[in-house]
Amino acid sequence: MSSSLPTPDPDETIQRVLFLCPTVHIYTVPPLTSTKGYTTTGWSPLLAPTASNPTPTAITTRLRVLETSSSTPATTSSSASSEFNNIKTTILLEDPTSGDLFAAAPYTTPATVEAVLDSARFFAVRVEGEGGRKAVLGIGFEDRSEAIDFGICLQEALKVMGIEKDVMNGAAAIKGGRRGGVGGAKEVKKEVGKASWSLKEGEMIKVEIGGMGVKRKEPFEGGGKDGESALFSIKPPPQNPSMEAMPFLPPPPSAQEVKAESRRSRGLVIPEKGSAADLGFDDGEFGEFQ
């Protein structure tokens, strides 16, 4: 796509380059299918033959953002204010070697350049050719910083031309129209101005300072007021009913019982206690020592 721009008269116009990028890749953009915006899905490099290479190759151009200031007011109607209607901004895509113009996009509204949703290096640009033909081309920067500088340059251009102020006023008018037009917006402002924040009769303001408004914790159940009773305020654990019915274990056997049991196991019989006569002792006249 080629386009020609009128050569400005140096006595009446002043041109200033706002942004320059030596390498920008051009892509074909399919028709927009969503109101959310453009994405790089379906983009393909724009192919065209060159004088040195007849085989179609991907087009790479130079991008310039050119500002033109005219000393005479513009004759065409514009939404910008009268003090900015003689300033125009144009996005130029040119051949990086010869400088021939490939496509131009007059930057009159923010919709002329739209950033894609899935990348920060690609933009959709509405270009205009000879005879007023329009098309949407995709441009891609090799470096992310160049894309950021390009977006900042366009924002500054909107401020200089006064388009940003008109866009904001239009958005405010749309919001006001939803509330009943401009008059509806004025009524809302009046209602906000008449709003009274004074306390009505019977209303009170509750203010909590530090821990004054914090409710004290209740003491443990069974605890007393003094410190001694507070130490024993915790109840003992409940006893298991099955443990109460369990009998106590018998005491261990004594040493004598252990010896007697060992003797019985070996077959030794210990005579039972009896009298001296039973044991063979004479308990008569000479039975005792005198």
Radius of gyration: 53 Å
Indicate the structural class: alpha+beta
Q: How much of the residues is beta strand, in percent?
A: 15-25%
What's the story with the biggest beta sheet? 8 strands, antiparallel
Stretches with pLDDT under 50, minimum 5 residues: 74-84, 178-185
Number of strands: 10
Order of helices and strands: EEEEEEEEEEHHHHHH
The chain-level mean pLDDT equals 74
Termini separation (Å)? 159 Å
- Total DSSP helices: 6
Shape: elongated
Helical content (DSSP H or I, runs of 4+): 10-25%
Summarize the structure.
The protein has 290 residues and is an alpha+beta fold.
Topology:
Blueprint: E1 13-28, E2 44-45, E3 47-48, E4 57-58, E5 60-70, E6 87-94, E7 101-106, E8 113-115, E9 122-128, E10 134-141, H1 144-161, H2 163-178, H3 181-194, H4 227-231, H5 241-245, H6 255-266
Antiparallel strand pairs: 1-2, 1-5, 1-10, 3-4, 5-6, 6-7, 8-9, 9-10
